[in-house]
Amino acid sequence: MFDANMILRYLLNDNREMADRAEQYLEAGNVTVTIEVIAEVVYVLKGVYAIDRDKIADTVKGFLLLVSCQETDVLNLALDTYAKRNLDFVDCVLYGYHQVKGIEIATFDKKLLKLMAP
Question: Where are the domains of the chain?
Answer without folding.
Answer: 4-116
